[in-house]
Amino acid sequence: MSIKLNSGHEMPLVGFGCWKLENKIAADQVYDAIKTGYRLFDEAQDYGNEKEVGDGIKHAIDDGLTSREELFITSKLWNSYHDPKNVELALDRILSDLKLEYLDLFLIHFPIAQKFVSFDEKYPPGFYCGDGGNFHFENIPLLDTWHAMEKLVEKGKVKSIGISNFNGSLIYDLLRGAKIPPAVLQIEHHPYLQQERLIEWVQSQGIAVTAYSSFGPLSFVELENKKAIDAPKLFEHDTIKRIAANHGKTCAQVLLRWSTQRNIAVIPKSSKQERAIENLEVNKFNLTDDDIKEIKKLDKGLRFNDPWDWNHIPVFI
């Protein structure tokens, strides 16, 4: 199953997330995921593993498991490269690392313009801005960055462009000046953070939605995120367990189907082959209306990936 983007391209409804893929095994995991049947791979400069992911993709193509045309590869522009003069440079680095001639989807990772850091100084730079652990920012309007993204589409280096971690007002303003509207919004989305109004409005504008961290706190516990550590685990929640048992499915499948049944794409990651297969097959059953109503009650507005926690950056205030 797939979503038809406003750019005219098809995006798979279920993909494979590359966040926190360990460098030493990333190539093998990507190769195995392609062998399992995954065709969408969600990457980002900030993940620091694009060379290895690129190795896995190349290996799979060389072995005849797939073709480049069958794959849908996403990556994201990191905060340090928002200045229009750096956007194409950043993309070229991504393409070089992934060993690709184009991306299927290129997203602005966060609506935050950090101070530029050269590739030679530190890559990927993460939150480093050239001054130890101190944050520094550049006065680059989002629309300027977006226009630079649009030029990449015109050059054929990117098929579709989109945004990630944007709130409604930022998207509303971006649409006023965009020549090419965003094809996709990627957001943190799970039963504890449902963002119903944002999703309803974005989809009404013809923008597809991709959910990350579909399993809620699970992705953030190992990062020592206190909110995640304190939150009840969704795999252990009585509501999710009951729904899973009623359908003869796993809790993970229920959480993923909760999104895909509403035409929201998902990008789970699993190092276990059996789990990867289960995740890929989530569209083979349907949740009931009562299931959806029960999950709706779990919304806490609990956000685990919040720039306010980095440096009081008010993206979601």
Automatic annotation (TrEMBL):
Q: Where is this site: Lowers pKa of active site Tyr?
A: 76
Q: Which residues form the NADP-dependent oxidoreductase domain?
A: 15-299
Name the residues that bind substrate. 109
Signal peptide range:
none
Source domain of life: Eukaryota
Per its UniProt record, what Pfam families does this chain match?
Aldo_ket_red
**Database matches in SUPFAM superfamilies:** NAD(P)-linked oxidoreductase
Q: Which UniProt keywords apply?
A: Carbohydrate metabolism, Oxidoreductase
- Drop me one GO molecular function for this one: oxidoreductase activity, acting on the CH-OH group of donors, NAD or NADP as acceptor
InterPro entries annotated for this entry?
AKR (IPR020471), Aldo/ket_reductase_CS (IPR018170), NAD(P)_OxRdtase_dom_sf (IPR036812), NADP_OxRdtase_dom (IPR023210)
Catalytic residues? 47 (proton donor)
Task: Name the protein family.
Answer: Belongs to the aldo/keto reductase family.
**UniProt xrefs under PANTHER family:** ALDO/KETO REDUCTASE
- The name under which this protein is listed is GRE3
**From which organism does this entry originate?**
Candida oxycetoniae
